[in-house]
Amino acid sequence: xxxxxxxxxxxxxxxxxxxxxxxxxxxxxxxxxxxxxxxxxxxxxxxxxxxxxxxxxxxxxxxxxxxxxxxxxxxxxxxxxxxxxxxxxxxxxxxxxxxxxxxxxxxxxxxxxxxxxxxxxxxxxxxxx
Amino acid sequence: xxxxxxxxxxxxxxxxxxxxxxxxxxxxxxxxxxxxxxxxxxxxxxxxxxxxxxxxxxxxxxxxxxxxxxxxxxxxxxxxxxxxxxxxxxxxxxxxxxxxxxxxxxxxxxxxxxxxxxxxxxxxxxxxx
Amino acid sequence: xxxxxxxxxxxxxxxxxxxxxxxxxxxxxxxxxxxxxxxxxxxxxxxxxxxxxxxxxxxxxxxxxxxxxxxxxxxxxxxxxxxxxxxxxxxxxxxxxxxxxxxxxxxxxxxxxxxxxxxxxxxxxxxxx
Amino acid sequence: xxxxxxxxxxxxxxxxxxxxxxxxxxxxxxxxxxxxxxxxxxxxxxxxxxxxxxxxxxxxxxxxxxxxxxxxxxxxxxxxxxxxxxxxxxxxxxxxxxxxxxxxxxxxxxxxxxxxxxxxxxxxxxxxx
Amino acid sequence: xxxxxxxxxxxxxxxxxxxxxxxxxxxxxxxxxxxxxxxxxxxxxxxxxxxxxxxxxxxxxxxxxxxxxxxxxxxxxxxxxxxxxxxxxxxxxxxxxxxxxxxxxxxxxxxxxxxxxxxxxxxxxxxxx
Amino acid sequence: xxxxxxxxxxxxxxxxxxxxxxxxxxxxxxxxxxxxxxxxxxxxxxxxxxxxxxxxxxxxxxxxxxxxxxxxxxxxxxxxxxxxxxxxxxxxxxxxxxxxxxxxxxxxxxxxxxxxxxxxxxxxxxxxx
Lengths: 129, 129, 129, 129, 129, 129
Fold this sequence. Notes:
Six copies of one chain form a homohexamer.
Chain A: E1 2-9, H1 16-27, E2 29-36, H2 51-64, E3 70-74, H3 84-91, E4 97-100, H4 103-111, E5 116-117
Parallel strand pairs in A: 1-2, 1-4, 2-3, 4-5
């Protein structure tokens, strides 16, 4: 059981696969911070929802499951990868481990000696897009 | 009792006056969203703490008081006042009323027909800076 | 006859179809503001001309037709859709109705309760690109 | 009589002194482009009005005087002085001479071999701020 | 023999073809400034290396060849083509001639009356990517 | 004798005190990288010279002293202190120690476990501003 996990994604939208992932992360961590990436974008095919809409969706989904040991933080893209980890760590409370589906994000945190974890595998059959 | 209140400030740092204000806001609102303004700034005299540090401080202070019906959202400055309300509402869950110590912020939300409230008065003697 | 219409496009370049559209808009509006979108871009295949060059082309085309009840406003892209309407309304004089070929722009203004109009249809055969 | 003059200012607000200056510029120039500087700023003591409000004020003032050979262009600040002249010339139609009250702007245009003119003197007594 | 040449590229990475080009440029110029374009980007397929890593690679490559009459300057992209030449000339020491493989860059400098030269041809067979 | 030192300043302008500092730094380091801060600013009282002009001045001053083991890197301000060290390290070749007159810069590098050194003292009498 580590302390606080950081789970970063765009969540466009937050779906049952994401929810399952939050639950598995909380099996081995005391708390979770959900980082909403590309926070400034909305109203497009790739990014339909605003960060505020995504915040509300995630909050409702976790509350409905009786999960309360979470925090949510919108994180705007910087588009400059070399400063991204500093940008993220300036915006969120301290955390002990990173979970992400993005190989790139995973690599970035590794360069900064932040312990990362590949996302726990799940049955994609079970959670179709 | 209205629904969800939005309380915006820089919280550099979050102090007992802010805490008293959160409590009073929750006397007439079901939930509160605390918006951390000037979120990108830190390491200066005016803005010593990062948004992440401020997030953590506010979270601990409210949890210690047994307050759990809150959300916290870091909000970077845009420096372009004409888009500020749209920027804020894109980043936070929907809210019904705005509380702020900033006359300027108060005026901005008024222009957008968002109901605002001047901050409930408190005894500054009681909470010296 | 409404008051002032706002017609937004990139006008790369302003062509006979655009001119016909201006004329039809002025059949039911007293004045027109022509907004030059993506104003900061130029020198590419998609955006060959600067906003200044486009401004001059539109001005000459309308003057040549004896149209004088127009204003032209260059409008830089923000790339953050949630603030786009606030950005536009801060840069141009007040208007009563929006005309645009962009479904996205049309939807944005609708969210802000600004009356929009789909562009009056025209015979594309008559105005080949 | 030169061709087209460019007159740049913030016009917060456009006052009788500015109007007098426009008239004098038009004594020796065929047309005038009025550039609204710091276009993105508003809602502060130094920059109370949006560019759109300033655009409308200038338009009404000139129309009321029977002046019609003008164009108005909002110009956002870049804060990077070395690119400012390129930024301005990309946004406005071509011009032959620059008028400005700003010594700095005057110097910038001079570096780019754009002919500038110190503003024609006027009786400040006659147009108190 | 002209004075100082400016050679701009992204150098992702700097390869033997670039080195050959530097040598040929120095056959007819006294010194060379190597501009590292897209300096803020890294960690992607198109831009794998940081500007600092590219700086170091170029420096080592030229030093290993006994070339010492060079300077290196990282140049961030502005994405606004109309100000690009002003941006570049503000960041680098004065130069007399521009070398670039980019037709677009070549055209930009031409607009500013900066003498440009198409890159000296080389045998691509000899320097495969 | 450590490896490569990084000396960051604005150098508006580079003066004899800076030159003396470069010499002292090179007494205990094999090479020096001179970082030109606030690189995008020029044409003001506080920042009169462009980064290119400052680059050229420093280069001439060091060459005139027979110093050749240096590199110069223009570094634009980000205004977001939390990402500043990542920004700097992405733009310059790797270095082993930081020299700066800025207490703030000194603190930033310390947070990132980069060894810093307060600037070697010098006789200000000897190098009046």
